[in-house]
Specification:
alpha/beta; Rossmann fold; six-stranded parallel β-sheet; 17% strand
Length: 402
Amino acid sequence: MKSIHQLGDLRGQRILIRCDFNVPLDGDVITDDGRIRAALPTLTSLLEAGAKVVVMAHLGRPKGQVAPKFSLAPVAQRLSQLLGRPVKLAQDVVGPSAETTVAGLGAGQIALLENVRFEAAEESKDDAERARLAERYARFGDIFVSDGFGVVHRKQASVFDIARLLPNAAGDLVVQEVAVLRQLTETPQRPYVVVLGGAKVADKLAVIENLLQVADTLVIGGGMAYTFLKAEGLEVGQSLLDPTKVEACAEYLRAARAAGKSILLPVDVRTVTDWDFASRSVVGEVVTVPVDQIPADRQGLDIGPATQKLFAQAVVGAKTVFWNGPMGVSEIEVLSQGTRALAQALADCPGLTVVGGGDSAAAVRAFGYPDDAFGHISTGGGASLEYLEGKTLPGLAVLTEA
């Protein structure tokens, strides 16, 4: 991939840049601006070089419809604050407002197009339909820069098709993300520990298969752990379980042991009889039990204190750690202790620690950790997982095409 620093003199050049500004909102208030801050180095470099910067981004899933609640207006406001300069927001994506806004840009000025997902063709499965939209995007730029790592695994008009129409380069964020993930898959310092959590075991099986080849220890927590516990012959009560993946989990456990790898599963869990995510509360008492004694009427929603120590010991002693997925329902205070303990273990680890985006990144920021408490916080949970699976990411592959 060519970087933005290989583009030559950019003064007066129109740079059409894809960023990932899919930030969480509470009403119109951004609750985590990490993805916006991650784009600042690239944007600042382009603006200081005298480029006319036109930003494309998405927010939420408006499904091709104009939906005011998914407007990028809060993003434009926050980006303006962080950059210390005005950010002009177009009121549409490729319509009259976008054309006027882009035409009015001067050197060293920046504009943000409205949510690209307001255009139905942006996510179309029809290559020709996406290409037509990309041609309309291309009118706004002389060079395309890809800096939205969180979307490079998507074959979308503003990610993939536009890169085929304009000279292209990777922004600093994408270059950094790829460098870190390449180190994780090709040259990790050992011991190398991978921690996987979250709810859906099916989302992580391909990652486990690939990482079994390079990692020394796999640590498995969160909702996905109960399918592995079931594969070990344990009863998991009302805990989250994917019965279609039990045999696959059993096979991974056998393969890991045969290869001399270590897979750590919870030894105790915090259980409840019921809980309400909307009110961030549990029903009744939280009871910690060993994993072989989970009552039939209770569900495990966080790892227990003995597991916290077990997992933390593995993490602190590692030279490379990759973590994706919380250890429990970290949004509920009484069920956040496992995730908090793991975050602290990563912060205490002297080696390279990588937080794999998504819920993990949101959790560590909600707990009050600064980004520099870790070696790297990825801006793309799904993209980083697919990279670690060994998949070809369309948004990266297109940047290396001749």
